[in-house]
Structures are given as structure tokens and as C-alpha cells.
Protein: Alanine--glyoxylate aminotransferase family protein
Amino acid sequence: MSDRKLLMIPGPIELSPAVLTALKAAPPSHVAPDFIEIFGASLELMRQVWGAGPKSQPFIIAGSGTIAMEMAVANVVARGQRALVVNTGYFSARMAEMLRRRGVEVGEVGAPAGKAPSLEEIETALDSAQQDGRAYDALFATHVDTSTGVRVDAQAIARAADRRGLLSVFDGVCATAGEAFEMQSWGADIYLTASQKAIGAPPGLALMVFSERALEARKSLSEPPPMSVDIEQWSPIMQAYEARKGSYFSTPATSLVCALFASLSEITAFEASGQRGIGPRIAAHQRCADGMRAAWAALGLELFCEPDLSANTMSALRYPDGVDGARLLAGIKARGVVVAGGLYPGRQDEYFRVGHMGHVIERPSLLAKTVRAVGETLVENGHPADVEAALATLRERVGG
Ligand code: PMP
Structure:
């Protein structure tokens, strides 16, 4: 891949040199002492990144984000139970479909594309079901819906569920390690993600942390989930690795776990303004998002989602009137940068998406390359845009 382009889609993302180095080694045995240490330490680092308590259980499983979603669904609800899905787009709809396929009765509280339901609407849905004697058993939400860039208020939603003694599950695939999430203090029960976005590793790992309450929910299921996604199979393996003992149920993706460890080590060692850890790393994502957003505005681009709801990790941007989407994306690519098209069903042709997470957030030259590529292509396609002003605005916010 000699003419490799800068990858600015909402995952997979550019990787740091340390993660690339970790990937270069020959795959270790899953029971080699060095690997056992790396696996155990990665589980511990996940608790830090997730803000999870000591009694929670982290899982690192070979698979994609969709597998992590499936594991969450399969382990906490079963046929005949009820779940409320906060539907903010393509991936929430996928979660609802998974629940239905499991025989779960699904209620949805949604909003038009680019918006999110209010907390009041969510609480009303929960309370009216309770009053009708059809109380929900669990609530599912997508922290950042990658199809629109909408971020929900995960803290408020988790607390609303917790106050009602209800299990809450958050899909953090486009959020974890780029958006604030404090699993324990917010009372959230499952926070799941995949390795290829703000976690900063290649695709291929499903990552989840289950709270004690979520672990209990699995124990009380009337019928066990399929074996490969059953946390009862996986928990003893994770516990063994954390106790620095080798164990086997199904072969872990050893090379990817090494890359994950390199990435989680960087995330938890992140330093800014004299502070260290996941907090400053998230603040850096926010700074980067603010810079990118200011640059988009200077180019005359509008967000697809409501500005107040826009995520740290990506921007969804409307094609300006008269600009052809396919030509815009091709022109950006010709300038060495890859961005993504729209994804919201039926609205794909209205906007494009730019990821800004992980390694690039503190690399002003890469962010500037992206803004320049978008800006110059807009101009080439007849949209008047002041590229230098956009770059100056970006520089003011992210340096460089
Ligand atoms: N949820 C969200 C919010 C996502 O963005 C994605 C992937 N883009 C998924 C779930 C599914 O992850 P994967 O493609 O790794 O299966």
C-alpha cells in the first residue's frame, strides 16, 4: 500500500508508532508469560479507561463491535423480557433488531436524523411502561451514533436507569476513550466498544466491561446464550489472566491484544496541562473537535447533527448546495485524505463524515492536511471557501 492516504474516517483510524511497533512482532502464544502479563495488564487498564469499579468484569474478545453488541444483548436479556432502545440512528436500530431477534419486546424512543430524544422523553417512556405493568428490564443507548455524529447524554441516561433499578447498556464503539464515560459513578451496567476507533488499535477486538449487576443478570437468565458469547464461559478466563495465569476457552487474538496494550498504555499515560490519564485524553479530543468544528464553519460547512449534540470523535457535514458528494469525496482523496460518506438510511447523499480521534488529535499537521484537502476540494467544486482562514482558526485551537 505504497500511496497510503491519511485515514480520517470514523474508524478504523491512524495508529500511533507504538501500536504499529507492537503489531510488527510475530504472534505470541496465548499462554506465554509475556503475553499473560500483557493481557492481564490490559484488563486492568480497561477499568481505568472505562471508569469502572473493582467488582466490574472487563472482557477482551476476538471480534468486532457488532460482536460486542451481541454479547451485551445475549447476556442480560432473554425471550419475553422488555428493553427500551434510545434510537439515535443506524447503530441503535441495529441494537433494536438484535434484541428483537432474541425474542425481547422492544420499545423505542427516537428522534429525527441528527437529533436525540430528550431525557424527559426517555424517563416518560420508562415510567409509563412501569405504570402500565410492563416495566422495562433494560435500557440500551448508543453513546455516539456514527451515522450522524450525535452524542447522547450518557451520564443523565445512565443515572435515570439506575434510579429506577434498571440495567443500562451503552454502545461506545464511536465514543470510548474519546468521550467522557464513568461507568461506576454513573451507575451504568455495560459499556462496550471495539478496538478500531478512539481506543486506537486495529479492528478485531470486542471490548466490554460488565458491572456486578450485569453479571448477575446473566446468572438469572432462564436460558444460556450461545456458548461463544456467553460471559459465564469468558469470565473465568479474564479472571485468570488478571491473576497472571494462562487459561483457555477460545484462542485470543494475541497480536491484537499486544497492540491494544500499547494503545491503552498510551491512553492512560496521556499528559496535558500537568494532568495525566483518561481525563486529559478526553479533553484533548474535545479540543480537537472544537478546532475542527471551527474550521468547518470557516469553510461554510454545516453540521448534519444538532451542534449541541455533536461528538468529540467525528463530524458529520452537509454537502453545500450545488456540490456533488461523490466528486467532493474523490477530490479529497486525490489530496491524500480519506473521509467517509453518509450512513443514515435514506439520507446518505446529504452529508459526509470525518473521524477525529486517537493518534491524530494532537497532530495539528494531520488535522490541517484534512481541513486543507476538504477546503481546496470545495473551492474546486465551486463552493467559495476561505481555506487559509479555516486553517488559521484550526491553528488557534489545536496549535501547529
Ligand atoms: N456501534 C457503533 C456506534 C459503530 O460505530 C459501529 C461501527 N462503525 C458498530 C457499532 C459496529 O462495529 P463493527 O463494525 O466493529 O462491527
